[in-house]
TrEMBL record:
Tagged with keyword Glycosyltransferase: no
Superkingdom: Bacteria
Keyword annotations of the record: ATP-binding, Nucleotide-binding, Transport
Keyword Transport set for record: yes
Single GO MF descriptor: ATP binding
Protein name as it appears in the record: ABC transporter ATP-binding protein
Pfam families: ABC_tran
PANTHER family per the UniProt record, alphabetical: ABC TRANSPORTER, ATP-BINDING PROTEIN (PTHR43335)
Domain ABC transporter: 15-246
Family named by the database record: Belongs to the ABC transporter superfamily.
Gene3D superfamilies per record: P-loop containing nucleotide triphosphate hydrolases
Length: 337
């Protein structure tokens, strides 16, 4: 799977959040968030519903005031300079609205006029952007007839009209089919790379956004519990030094499972699961050890008379990260995975 790693780190932060906190009455929606995003970076703010992503975005835009801490966006304080921030930041909310009875071109020209472009310049830029987002042919069609995917493309053109430095997209892929998601994300990436745009996008789809994000932050219950590229998140999972060995074998016996459990440093295991359609009725099971026991485990399997089909030291992937941090609610339970 393609993942972006080539954003030019400038060492210049465009978004800088320090101990940013938002409380609604007794409920803390965002709790002491520290986050720096560099110019040109594509950052994915990931978390389940209600994690506090939208609240964080609203504070960055000056649309709601922090209870505590500070936000700096393009060097500005959104709480006090919200107009200036809005001039430099394009924001696409998750429920983006258009004038449905007006054409795509009219909608964009209207946004252009709100941003101070004259009619001629607005029309030129709107047509150029419609082409860029793949809606050139649909410029004269009413926005109300657009599919969800087309509306999101129109939304991206809409936020780019004012040539922002930063683009914030709240759940841009919501309700779009997989092919549409792929195209939309590719478009966001191209826009960022071609124009040096800084992009922050929120999502609860780790799989989707990792395709284009330089870094992701995992946000759970108002707190950033992990941050980095996918490889470094996986390393954070591995930080206790344990190693998961995955074994596929036929003629698996209870005695073999017990012998594997008696290897040095055994921490936990899952029960063998039959692999559907395997010609030799093989099963797969994972064993977690305090150090790498792959070769000793292979030896044991062969000695036991089972037929070994595959054995590997498991690399953590997105599913593991997602499961650990999201479904496990940040739990660090290791057994029975
Ligand atoms: N105006 C408000 N008044 C009271 N509570 C609020 C308000 N806005 C948000 N919350 C609460 O703050 C928490 C974070 O909400 P937020 O919308 O920021 O989460 P989110 O991660 O964006 O989730 P979603 O993907 O569902 O939008 C939730 O528990 C929500 O109910």
């Amino acid at each position: 799977m393609e993942r972006a790693t080539d954003y030019p780190p400038s060492g210049k932060s465009v978004i800088d959040l320090k101990r940013l906190t938002k409380r609604y009455g007794g409920h803390t929606a965002v709790n002491g968030l520290n986050l720096t995003i560099e110019r040109g970076e594509i950052f994915g703010l990931l978390g389940p519903n209600g994690a506090g992503k939208t609240t964080t975005i609203l504070m960055m835009l000056g649309l709601t005031e922090p209870t505590d801490g500070t936000a700096r966006v393009c060097g500005l304080d959104p709480a006090r300079q919200s107009l200036e921030v809005k001039r430099r930041v394009g924001y696409m909310p998750d429920d983006i609205g258009f004038y449905d009875d007006r054409t795509a071109l009219d909608n964009l020209m209207f946004t252009a006029s709100l941003n101070g472009l004259n009619a001629q310049e607005g029309r030129r830029r709107a047509l150029e952007l419609l082409d860029r987002v793949g809606l050139g042919e649909a410029a004269g069609k009413k926005a109300g007839t657009f599919s969800r995917g087309m509306r999101q493309r129109l939304g991206i053109a809409d936020v780019l009209i004012k040539k922002p430095e930063v683009v914030i997209l709240d759940e841009p892929t919501l309700g779009i089919d997989p092919e549409g998601v792929r195209e939309l994300l590719q478009l966001i990436r191209e826009m960022s790379r071609n124009e040096g745009l800084t992009v922050l996008l929120s999502s609860h789809h780790l799989h989707q956004v990792q395709q284009i994000c330089d870094r992701v932050g995992l946000f759970v219950r108002g707190e950033l519990i992990a941050c980095g590229d996918v490889a470094s998140l996986a390393r954070q999972l591995d930080e206790d030094g344990s190693v998961t060995v995955e074994i596929e074998a036929s003629c698996w016996t209870e005695a073999l499972t017990e012998r594997l459990k008696s290897l040095d440093g055994f921490i936990g295991s899952g029960s063998p699961v039959r692999l559907p359609g395997h010609p030799e009725e093989a099963s797969r099971a994972s064993f977690v050890f305090g150090s790498d026991q792959t070769s000793d485990a292979a030896k044991l399997v062969i000695e036991s008379g089972a037929r070994l089909h595959a054995i590997r030291r498991k690399q953590y992937g997105l599913d593991d990260i997602y499961h650990r941090y999201f479904e496990g609610g940040g739990s660090h339970e290791r057994n029975n995975r």
